[in-house]
Amino acid sequence: MRDRQVYIGIDTSAGRRPCHIAVLDAELRFINQTATPLRNVIKEVEKYPLAICAVDAPMGPNLGLLTQADIRTRHGLPPNGSKWAQFKLSEYELRRRGIALYNTPTDTNSAPSWMQAGWKLYEQLRVAGFVPYHPEHAADLQMCEVHPHASYSVMLGRLPFKKTSLEGRLQRQLLLYEENVDVADAMVVFEEITRNHLLRSELALDGLLLHDELDALIAALTAFYAGTRTDEITMAGDREEGQIVIPVETLKERYV
Question: Does any domain span residue 69?
Fold first, then answer.
């Protein structure tokens, strides 16, 4: 039954830090949230027979589409130019709008270690039965590429504060709370920010999530949009090269 479907967000790493996993149910309640080494991620994911898994990593290498004259022309770029040629179409669509994200190389061996770790995870997901997400698919197990910074940006309608800053964490958690995700209202943190606490170098942030946890949660929320609100998402990029699921029906021309 589709009401048993879960929505999994994975914030990957290359081994220096654990991967963060968030699992939400159809009511956006927590089923699980954990931090685990990359080698254990697939064990966590395989617990769920009906799932959309959103991964914060490119699904595949750059196919060099923006070096092709016809594709460049189709996207309003000079056919013989080189600007944007090193980016995937999905990356171009976001970067030109002011949303910064990675650059996926054409040579897989030159990719950074975290990106190669993501590709290994996607391969493990394929072996486990996951297929690439598409709004028209009805497969029990689907996987998609997401980008937490892009998801937060489009849902806020503007670029967020830096995710490692206190204000950035507050802002992201407030957005999740407003979207009815099962998180604490970040505003309660301010109840503990008193003159006395600051003078004593004490700052209790109970209930405020870490930025890796918040990234995993927005990935899970984006998976929820992909599974339940297909008319409210954008598939940025080319299907063959790899698309990024964006939780908004229409992208703005510029995010500032």
Answer: no
